[in-house]
Amino acid sequence: MAEFALIDLIRKRCAILRADVALGIGDDAALLAVPSGQLLAVSTDTLVAGVHFLHGADARDVGWKSLAVNLSDMAATGAEPAWATLALTLPGADARWVEPFADGFADLARLHRVALVGGDTTQGPLSITVTIHGFVAEGAALTRSGARAGDGVYVTGTLGDAAAGLRMVLSKQAGNAHLLERLHRPTPRVAQGLVLRGRATACIDVSDGLVADLGHICTASRVGAAIDADALPASPALLAAFDIPDRRELQLAGGDDYELCFTAPDEVAPGLLRELHDSGCAATRIGRVVAGSGVRVRDASGNPVAIAHRGWEHFA
Amino acid sequence: MAEFALIDLIRKRCAILRADVALGIGDDAALLAVPSGQLLAVSTDTLVAGVHFLHGADARDVGWKSLAVNLSDMAATGAEPAWATLALTLPGADARWVEPFADGFADLARLHRVALVGGDTTQGPLSITVTIHGFVAEGAALTRSGARAGDGVYVTGTLGDAAAGLRMVLSKQAGNAHLLERLHRPTPRVAQGLVLRGRATACIDVSDGLVADLGHICTASRVGAAIDADALPASPALLAAFDIPDRRELQLAGGDDYELCFTAPDEVAPGLLRELHDSGCAATRIGRVVAGSGVRVRDASGNPVAIAHRGWEHFA
User: What distance lies between CA A173 and its chain's CA centroid?
Assistant: First the structure.
């Protein structure tokens, strides 16, 4: 398959009509209309074979996940996603890989009405860079820097599932279907981000691990956080498969959950929690924002919880 | 160097203040204000080590070129560049490579007042994906699809220099400084794109080779083009280093020139050519748009000119 056949294949499978796309794939640049009064939110994430997914991973899952990790950044910003570009570097133009990849990307794009508006295909070691674009009203965007001492700390969904799934894959254990699904097809919490915008004081998506990502909120907000390890929401599958020490490690330091961790003052919390529940993904209070710096973790009895590592970092 | 030190290094070296950046590097998404009445122009290009530049290439040149190829897409659209994201995949976090890379990127970013607003750093085989954003008034954007039979075909600057430089590098000849500069530090014709907007009928940047790229205009516009090989503008360095057959091959099929190829009706041409000259980069008429399809090349005597290949294509 030649380069232009490849682009055509991807374009056809990812075709989503949006009135705000004045010019889509196929020219030197896409031309797009941002609604007046809205800021443009932009984020970029790369997945590299052998680093972010295993060589030989299911192409459809890779397509899904390459968009999911980017949509998760829109969620964490409280932005409404609209457009994506796709830079795809492939060892060869193999339709048996590209077709399911494009289908997986399109599966998720359709759910969120994200139009693929451009990109680049190049030959080289397999990697995927998506740049996602969305809108958010000025003043309503969620950032990492607004947490205040006294706010509650919350997380959507459950933590640790993806890291548990990865551990199963790497140790070649028979994988639990729920945990593997959470690893390979994460659900970006876009609807929940929209509920939180203008109301949560800070927000981040949990991609590197709870302690690491909440640590980014603490640094940006110049506060600390106190977390109750026994309050961390866990899926039945995680509870069944791992004992407390392993589970805590997975929940506190495991990456790839793509849940939202946010802070909110107590007076807005009940309404927020009700609306999040109604949006299809409940949130759980896991601690509070305190004066100082850094993330401290204790169990329900108040004993410090040690974790072996604090989260994923490249080049560490 | 750890990932966050790396990001900090890049951020510091590429700091450019723009009032339309509400939130830059360091959160889950950048927040940006597109001027009202303007469309957002977006384009993405990837450079892969060993494909788009040689392993061991000067890092400062790679930084420059990774932005230049993207700015060239803004030029071809007639858009005013504003913001970029940078997805950088590196085998290791080596400051001796990243510092000059960031400096090369910043050298060109400063010339065009492009703010680096976000990105991603990951570990893996060396590659760089930049997504560039700019503005263009609705209706004024240059596309590939407006060429009409009878229009003249024009190109800015000179053709073939970059391909000549690459040939020298690959054959380990002593390189001519001008030709190597054109290969390693291409000049995106942003100012010329702004002159052309709303006036040229079609435009593309010459990245894959003149015949291939003009062919894209022909396909999108449903026209053909007749080119005079003897009219192609050549630099003194190219004229001195290559005889006619080689020179024609380099000028017709060589990529990486990043000149603009555009079409315009005769009545607007004199004014356009004068303004392009005044902008610092003159354009040359190289042929005309004809009914039909495809790009035909003849010499000044009317004899057909054969070329061995038609331009760069991945996976070909």
Answer: 25
